[in-house]
Amino acid sequence: MTPVSSGFNKGAYAPHKGEEPVANNVILMGRLGSKPELRRVGTQNTPVVDVSIATNAFRRGEKTVDWHNVTLWDKQAELICTQDKGDQVYVEGSLRTDEWEDKEGNKRRKVYVSAFRFEFCGSKRNGDSRKTGAVGPSSNPYADDDIQY
Questions:
Q1: 112 lies in some domain
Q2: Residue 110 is part of which domain span?
């Protein structure tokens, strides 16, 4: 498959003969719900962070908050850990769904954004913007593996 544009995630492809076009791109700009905490997974001890990002929406004239689960890998995971709760971030990624059975045999499901790009947009603390900057694409070594976390 051939990427449609370098500006898109691996999830957006031009179809081959007989295939339907696909697109799976998510763009969010919001605030971190908590201080990101780094953990490491796999035999390579790969850095990964799961964060919640709050975005504002208006429904029927009232302001509401939507929460989005986002996973970042590698250098991006390490860098987002320099941010704090309430800091504003811009995230690009693709929507993923993981399904598995827990130890008790219950079916579990997790829907999240697997980030491939993000930017620091500023801090909520007194207009502090010293942590702003962009972080480009990174590879997710487990994108196609069945890893449960």
A1: yes
A2: 25-135
